[in-house]
Amino acid sequence: METIGIWIAALLTLGIFSFLYKDNPFYKFCESLFVGISAGYWFVTTFWQVFMPKLADNLVAGRLYYIIGGVFGVLMLLRLFPKIGWLSRWSLALVVGTTAGLYFTRYLVSNGMIQVQNTIIPLYVKGNLSQTIGNLVIVIGTFSGLIYFFFSKEHKGAFGGLAKLGIWFLMLSFGASFGYTVMSRMSLLIGRMDFLLGTWLGLIR
Amino acid sequence: MRRQLPILIVFVSGVFMVIQYFIPHESFEFIYEYAMDWIIIIGIFAMLLGLWSLTRASVSKVQAKAPGWGFSVMTLVGLATMLFLGFYKGNKSIAEGTFFMDLFWYIYTPIQATMFSLLAFYIASAAYRSFRVRTVLATILLVTALIIMLRLIPLGPISGVNQWLASWILTVPNMAAKRAIWIGVGLGATATALKIIFGIERAYMGKD
After folding, report:
1. Residue ranges of the domains in chain B?
2. Residue B189 contacts residue A196 (beta carbons within 8 Å)
3. Could you give the CA distance from residue B202 to residue B208 in angstroms, rounded to a whole number?
4. What is the pLDDT of residues A12-35, one digit of tens each?
5. What does the mean pLDDT of chain A come to?
6. Which of A54, A95, A138, A188 is spaced 20 to 30 Å from B152 by Cα?
7. How confident is the model at residue B208 (pLDDT cuts 50, 70, 90)?
8. Interface residue of B33, B76, B185, B190 to substitute, partner A, most A CBs within 10 Å
């Protein structure tokens, strides 16, 4: 099975790489197969690893409150029947309401308050020049970045200058993320090349 | 009933989740735990809708003999195979060494890894195009990216300097910009959550 599996994996890898030339039937075949396989894989694993322990096992153990989740889940499926499809909104409402309530506090605390708190730092640290410069850069960068995102006032004059400084900081941050992304994709590419030339063809060891 | 009750459910569940954060009592924690599990269970039922939608779209394409219908057959074959293999032996079907997992390792994993690795080529192309634009912003982006990429590569005498610079960029100016983004996202998410809880934002309900 392993040899057949390696051959299948190698051919599928080449099929996906063929997209670099242009969109072609070989690539589309691999892509379509991937859609079907991944949909099936995620449904099956979620069913056995999450659905069964969360719903079936809990109900069998007598924790009957879980039936509420099951009922709302079934209501979700009523979307398939146009006449009573509106009932699925109840399930959606529970998900949306719970998530909104959860995220209200979570984002307010972690993204709002904690970040603001961490930015209120001393602008002068006695005897530590690098820390002083670092703190200044953090405060100015965060403030100017926020100014850039403030669209209720036209970006002109001193305000526009700060917004411009803000976008410089943002570009620097995007550059760092870009560098990280390139490195991660390159390591994946090296992995695929290693598979093709090493595991499949045995040209490198 | 069709529109009012969902708004009420959103309000009650949303307000409860906000209140339980401020009252760490065991009865609130009890309901919180259940509510979280209900959301997961509903999500799994929603996955069924997704499977149904994928199947219906593919079958319609095959029935209509639309261009590329053969590829839809492959999608259906892949889906049916995984569902059959994943269920026919009960929960043992997904154990390591089964045919189900073989398909995962020899089909799913290589295709996914290769698709992500394809991006390396497109990123290189995007970097080249940014370089040709020759603006201050594009230069800042590319120079930073270069410093970050080179920090793990031995560069002789300048290795130490490059590593120090990359570390400083990540922990100081990058952190400043990230904080501005996080604060913006935080305020936006908080405002949106309030709009949803109080029924101002109702797009999730769709149209009648």
Report:
1. 1-66, 134-196
2. no
3. 12
4. 999 999 999 999 999 999 999 999
5. 95
6. A138
7. low
8. B190
CA atoms in the 13 A half-sphere facing the CB of B73:
9
A100 near B14, Cβ under 8 Å?
A: yes
**Phi, psi torsion values for A24, nearest 5 degrees:** -150, 165
Q: How far apart are CA B80 and CA B85, in angstroms?
A: 8
Residues B50 and B138: their CA atoms lie apart, in Å, by 40
Partner-chain residue, chosen from A36, A76, A171, that has the shortest CB–CB distance to B76: A36
- Residues, chain A: 205
Each residue of B27-66: b (16+ CB within 10 Å) or e?
ebeeebebbebbbbbbbbbbbeeeeeebbeebeebeeeee
Q: What is the ipTM of this complex?
A: 0.90
pLDDT tens sequence across A98-143 = 999 999 999 999 999 999 999 999 999 999 999 999 999 999 999 9
- Whether A105 and B17 lie within 8 Å, measured CB to CB: yes
